[in-house]
């Protein structure tokens, strides 16, 4: 069976949305709207795999929804909602917990990074996180998943889960009316766009992250012009002038990152950026990058702040999106329960 093309992606409401989230994910979400039906989810249940202060969590959920809309996602034509309002995600995740193998989970590098040395003290939810992510995608039987580079392994696991479910329940899937025995699609990652891996402004070998203790490591979507300027001015560089060709960026992670950010924001390429700024000093280039970043991010940040303060509007969008998402998800769960052998209406 050919699956209907459908885009699904999620962003965690765990604090400051930054330039990496924007260029690595949200910009692509916006682009895909013209070609596909899209579902964009604020994954609040993923967020609580590590401790979240409840009042902060509530604020972050609304902030991510506001960022989606401020960046240009149309919540009427597509679906914008928060995960916890659609209980079918958790329901399917449980089934997947029983499909996925411990050996598969043990290979997940994000768990190892997030759990750190004190693995015994990590939540069970953090360990099962990829199974919930697979459920997010497959409860809509989505075919395309725009993500940054760091989520590639989780997408591979999603496909492994889909495949094992399809194999384990082949006969029941056919009986349920899916003649070719395929119930879940092999969801494809969409890792394209201007910058699939934006690095920290303090260390070009580490990815830009919400959890970095230094706020100077990232540009937040909510930062004002002065803050953006300060952060770019203080961004780590090396003593050499910028190279004139792209291969000159090798072994210079900070220069590579800043040039990549410029190219992504300008809609050009690193080669084009270097043809203009190569041979020059970082200070000149940084000045241009500040102007560009303020110009591109300023309006998104301002609109995001305006929308975040309109709680009634945002909560209305999330409730409406959740109801529409739930109608789709409950249809999948009805089949899943039948396939697995649960008894019910
Ligand atoms: P998260 O904040 O972890 O929920 O990530 C939301 C989306 O942003 C995911 O698709 C990530 O892959 C993407 N993302 C997060 N950090 C970066 C980064 N530094 N560079 C590019 N994409 C990123
Ligand atoms: N794990 C993703 C991240 O940290 C967020 C996420 C949760 C997601 N569920 C998803 C992304 C489903 C794509 C599809 O970035």
UniProtKB/TrEMBL annotation:
Mind telling me which InterPro entries this protein's record contains?
Answer: aa-tRNA-synth_I_CS, aa-tRNA-synth_Ic, Rossmann-like_a/b/a_fold, Trp-tRNA-ligase, Trp-tRNA-ligase_bac-type, Trp-tRNA_synthetase
Catalysed reactions listed for this entry: tRNA(Trp) + L-tryptophan + ATP = L-tryptophyl-tRNA(Trp) + AMP + diphosphate + H(+)
Segments carrying motif 'HIGH' region: 13-21
Under the heading NCBIfam families, the entry gives: trpS (TIGR00233)
Q: Could you tell me one molecular function GO term of this UniProt entry?
A: tryptophan-tRNA ligase activity
Enzyme Commission number(s) of this protein: 6.1.1.2
Give the keywords, sorted. Aminoacyl-tRNA synthetase, ATP-binding, Cytoplasm, Ligase, Nucleotide-binding, Protein biosynthesis
Tell me which family the UniProt entry assigns to this protein. Belongs to the class-I aminoacyl-tRNA synthetase family.
The keyword ATP-binding appears for this protein: yes
- Give the binding site residues for ATP: 12-14, 20-21, 148-150, 198, 207-211
Concerning CDD domains, the annotation shows: TrpRS_core
Its main localization is cytoplasm
Quaternary structure, from the entry: Homodimer.
Full protein name = Tryptophan--tRNA ligase
- From which source organism is this entry? Rhodoplanes tepidamans
In which compartments does the protein localize? Cytoplasm
Q: Locate the residues binding L-tryptophan.
A: 136
Q: What does this protein do?
A: Catalyzes the attachment of tryptophan to tRNA(Trp).
Q: Which Pfam families match?
A: tRNA-synt_1b
Q: Where is this motif: 'KMSKS' region?
A: 207-211
